[in-house]
Known about the structure:
mainly alpha
Amino acid sequence: xxxxxxxxxxxxxxxxxxxxxxxxxxxxxxxxxxxxxxxxxxxxxxxxxxxxxxxxxxxxxxxxxxxxxxxxxxxxxxxxxxxxxxxxxxxxxxxxxxxxxxxxxxxxxxxxxxxxxxxxxxxxxxxxxxxxxxxxxxxxxxxxxxxxxxxxxxxxxxxxxxxxxxxxxxxxxxxxxxxxxxxxxxxxxxxxxxxxxxxxxxxxxxxxxxxxxxxxxxxxxxxxxxxxxxxxxxxxxxxxxx
Length: 242
């Protein structure tokens, strides 16, 4: 792995310094994300067809995970390729070096023995990117958008979101080196809320497109907005009493 440039070193140090801040923010937002997901689960009657198609797509992944398919070496290798490509993208954006991303040497046992040959040790964004950013789901949706109607796109999106979550769990079970570098505490605080956000956003998008995605984002922050409104009203009341 080639050495970092001075600018890349500064970026790497800056990214490393935000790791636990990001984990804390994600942990604080966890109840808000769960609340927003719950609100959208109540909208099933409003979008019965799209919700059903999304659930069917996710069910396909669940059924496949209960077979021996997930234990096949070629399946695990494909998952590894998809995740390395995502990490390479974020590595490039953050000026971190990466080499031989798709080679057997990187994807094979040497990665488990020397995980830092591929990624900088402090760049948690690159390490966590493939467990947060659903690249395969987005690629599937974009492909389906060209040829399929909205209801079938919901089916594809359900499959893609479920794949993203299932493949992440599979990597967790097998002790992926990236997760070992990040640490169990960080994974619990950051990756779990982040994937809940992916599930909720994917579900809202499947039901109501970009409008649903926007409404889901508003639902996540609506309790904070309500709390701020109560604080402002309290301040006005206190000022009026003074």
